[in-house]
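Let's practice the habit of predicting before peeking. Look at the sequence and jot down your guess about where helices and strands might fall. Then scroll down.
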Amino acid sequence: MALRIGVVGLHRGMGFVRVFSQHPDCELAAVCDIQPGRAGDVAEEFGVPMHFEDYSELCRADIDAIVVATPAPVHVPHALEALSEGKHVLSEVPAAYDLNQAEQLARGVERSGLKYMFAENMCYFAYIQTYRQMVHRGDIGRPIYAEGEYVHDCRSLMHGRFDGVTPGSESGPNWRASMPPIHYCTHDLGPVLEILDTRCISAVGMHTGSHIAAEWGTIDAEVGLFRCESGAVVKILCAFSIARRPAMHWMVVYGTEGYLEGPRGGTGNRHMLYTERTQNLQGPMELALSTSHTGAPPEATAGGHGTSEYYMCNDFARCILDDTQPPIDVYRGLDYSVPGICAHISAESGGKPVEVPDFRRD
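Done guessing? Here is the structure:
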């Protein structure tokens, strides 16, 4: 029997709509959006039998799982409501918006006994998975330091756009304008932690203040510096009102015997490896890597972001159908998200180190 999927939040959620509408083991059974008329239009376009504007009605519908692709501040309440109605959850990033939400989410998933998977699509980028294999194989020795950057000018999304959360956002600033940038650290911190096979235990943060979008109080850029359980150090920069084109992700991982480095924005797919394990290597080797997996079926690009969302959604479906552990479960999702919360607490406290809690029960 096909897994019956509902998707809430039909801006970011459209990638999930496209993937699940083509998945052989799933039925896209329902869509939901608070914006009047949007769910109906999507349902008509994709032949979806049910559509809603009230999220509680979606949670009570005859479906098996819900993809939560709503704005970041409501990911936890939406996930918890779905779980309380017996629905498995695939949640967009970040997993939680503050430490109280993080605690509520972990305990709510435990009580439910249902599947919760964190939808960090960058962990499914083909080049990230190759980095992980190379580091775990020992190609650069023991990993000791990593950096990641996510710089994306989102000022056009910060105002004059109904966001389903902020009253008056149609003509004024919305939640994106007030979000501490490092709260959205998961796109780089998640992959780095997977590559290093560790979690953060302490955080130090600093930010620039508000200069570019000062009328909204938007923080220009924010940095988190993290000590990991493995002993490695990680630095993550997030900036969403910086004047830069194009948007970019960048990453470097240093080991005791070499490094892996990805391309910066606008430099194509020039991934570089240098390793002392190869004799007479005078400089880095260029690697032919991309976000997309070789040999993926044609429909794998339907969700966007290369082929990542195809494989991520498939893993979510399989963990329910096969009753296995989600590849990125609630605790790992919080490992990716909570360090950013702690880094902002540190930044607001003059850079004082903050312990990163582990929400796993002993």
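How did you do? The CA atoms of residues 272 and 352 lie 35 Å apart.
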